[in-house]
Request: fold
Amino acid sequence: MGIAQRLRQVKKFMDGVLGADKYDRYLAHHRANHPGTAPMNEREFWKDYSAWQESNPQGRCC
Amino acid sequence: MSSNHTLPPSAVDPQVAEREERRWTPARIIIWAAIALLGGVAWAILAFSRGETINAIWFVFAAVCTYLVAYRFYSKFIERKVAKPDDTRATPGESINNGRDFVPTDRRVLFGHHFAAIAGAGPLVGPVLAAQMGYLPGTIWIIVGVVLAGAVQDYLVLFFSMRRGGRSLGQMAREELGLIGGTAALLATLAIMIIIVAILALVVVNALGESAWGVYSVALTIPIALFMGVYLRFIRPGKVLEVSVIGFALLMFAIISGRWIAESAWGAEFFHLERTTIAWAIIIYGFIAAVLPVWLLLAPRDYLSTFMKIGVIALLAVAIIVVRPEIDVPAVSEFASRADGPVVSGSLFPFLFVTIACGALSGFHALISSGTTPKLVQKERQTRFIGYGGMLMESFVAIMALVAAISIDRGIYFAMNASAAATGGTVETAVQFVNSLGLAGVHLEPHMLTELAANVGEESVVSRTGGAPTLAVGIATIMHQWFGGAAMMGFWYHFAIMFEALFILTAVDAGTRVARFMLQDTIGNVIPKFKDTSWRPGAWVCTAIMVAGWGYILILGVTDPLGGINTFFPLFGISNQLLAAIALAIVMTIMAKRGNFKYLWVVILPLAFAVVVTFVASWQKIFSADTKVGYFANHNAYREALANGETSLGSTEGVEAMEAVVRNTGVQGWLSVIFLLLAIIVVTAAVVATIRARISGSDESTEDPYVASKIYAPQGIISTPAEKELEAQWDAYYAATGTSRESAGH
Reply:
């Protein structure tokens, strides 16, 4: 495996752990479940996501 | 979607999987024999070497080999006999898949995600304090404890919560234990969260007190996080990794520029803050952070903290392996059998087991293993890797913290960790105190303390209690040998302080928010309006109550004449272990209701241990006549002295300080009583439910109904031939139908 490919893997992993890939996953989810309707754009999605986070706090451990 | 392609199976044929697991090829036998042998040798060296130095690499070998064996054999045994996962069954992530919190997530990513959520400052601090008893007791408890208790709890809570749509621990308690047990579990969780946030905040305050460099760089994390929040919201939405890298670079600048600030006259004065001032700042910060919009401060800080967590822990592991420091701390120290240790009081049993909570067994993890992570699991069998494996990883963090703490000189260790009441707070009196302890091989010289302080850029290192500064010195000691030399020690020290502070402040605001929601939900049962979490007055009132709760204990800790952390830390450990007992009791009840009595010992073993340890520890804290151990014994001694008109007792001078001791020991004592009573109620309810299930042969199940899975993924990191073959079938299927696993919806 080349270095570039490994770096891409690390990026993909960190994106996943941080939750940076949420929008891509939402798009995939949207395509599969609500075909024919327009998905939110990236800005709208993240706004919507923080609004949801507002009422669904996630714990962090000690 | 094309219908002429049939869906491949959603699980490896159980018989094939069984055969693969049980097939012992010569290569396999050799590998496992080598792992076992290396682990055995490492343990023998740790256990039997006396009087000479010992290389830190043996800690790594003992830990990693034990983890591998435990993961391969014990967790597999638990999977087979207790959890009994079924990969043909859809996880809640798959069946509900709402693109938000229920999302089937790649197992490796979820492992990182789960680990980042469970690991924090806890596993870093406890082992440092427990190092006063020598390295061996702590090492054994961290490694054996995680294998038989901590990882078992995390795994089974994760699994059973996953089978229940990702329900929270509180909801499961209510369902399994009934109204009384459930309510007690909820109250205990709330009280424990308050205590944990308070003690963690106390650790930060102690690390930053009278440290201009530390205050400056940690304070800068707030504007950095705000900048990141604005960047993500308005400039480049969704570019999380990008902004985390920028944030990390800014963080490094904050640490580096801290030296300039600390060395400048105005900076040293402006950022030199008393510990009470810092405590108030954190209380105000905690309130504001908890009511501000999540995107502005909480979310970006969390990204930064996660980014640092993964990076620093990997860095530390590499550094320990590269530097391999020599350890000259005794295996079992003088304080293991005595109750008057200057760092934490009380004898090895039970106080070692409450001092090291996270890293061996942490009840707090049950709150993450239920609720958050189970909704993200892709396949049932992956819970072993994520739950059990994730906790093994946290245990390894604790071992690294222990290694860092014991790689510094023992004399310095005691000068840093004994309370100011004992050391007198100055270099001369601290040297005198440490040398008077009469510890074998310990001889402290004043220049050792002043040189260290100068190297790490602090005014003084005497009585910098709380574990974080000691760990930071340990990390700096290891890291500067690998990178940067003595000139870099200050950087590494403040780097370590920074990342601990970052974890803790994240836990403080996230904890306050979670506790606020729990409180709103509880009050909502009486005043329904409170259930609406977007109702601002309700949110503000409940946040204020929670912040007042932990803020009060924080202020008591900071102003405690007896040293704060030394007297309050046992409460942290006891409450965390009591929460573990509650979680394990719920797991036991679920297993009993499943009719699995034959293997109930898997849970009874850690449950019984946690119950004995925490009950004995609480008992001693409440009833011990030894003023070094018992809160009420001390309480009464001071009360009596005051009544007799005395103006000093022990190292406490003045009536005001004595009154503070009376008040603090009273609060500590009553908190112990409350925790103990709540835990007794929960455990009793669980035992009753278990016995009832045994007698009536209950087969009632609170599991969600079976839904067939339509996706497949392997269970761990290394796939077996059968797993690879099935994955290939699925790849072919997705290619032929033009779909992907991500798009599989319901």
Q: What stands out?
A: The mean pLDDT of chain A is 90.
